[in-house]
Predict the structure of DeoR/GlpR transcriptional regulator.
Amino acid sequence: MIFEKRLEIILDTLKEFRQVSNKILIDKLDISESTLRRDLDFLEQRGEIKRVHGGAILTNVEFEEKSYDKNIVLNIDKKCNIAKKASNLIGNSKYIFLDAGTTTNLLIDYLDKDINVVTNGIMHIDKLNKKKIKTILLGGLVKSKTNVTIGEKTILELSSFNFDIAFIGANGYANGEFTTHDPSEAKIKRLAIERSRKAYILADSSKKNRIYFSKICSINEVDLIREDL
């Protein structure tokens, strides 16, 4: 296989899976380890990939996971606009999954108390209680950085509900996919989408063309609400 074709296959594989082991690439390309090493070195020098232990990742994969406290002060006007638009989509929906996050937190300001909310977002509880909205907080392991519950207990409890509508946060959207930093959080978001009759991603334009490690879903599985739509 010629050099240029090998590079194309390596990049296409990384775009699909984001992180790929050397073994998978060697098998896929049917080349030696030394040949793969030279190909990866070339792509890394060109700035297209980053070598990691036992494999490679795309260089445009975001590594930083912002805390809830840092996120809440960013793009407030845009997030408020998105929250207001999202509230207009609720209609007669009674059972809502409210994902963790700063934009979904602002959505609470527009919610009517005659609904039922299920969430893994600890940051939402005070607001929901003050508005006297019936709320179920999913149990599980508390992740303090993003102020959420995650893990098998969270998944198990979420699996027992069905929703009219789900509002989901995402850290990035690019290449027809929505992504987030933590696989555990991505799994919860995916399940909530599957358990909902209708699902919306709330993401401001700063998230565009950003790719994070964990895929939430494809763009054809949900509708995107952003400030300029």
User: Anything to note?
Assistant: Residues 68-225 form a domain with the Rossmann fold fold (CATH 3.40.50.1360). The longest strand covers residues 163-169.
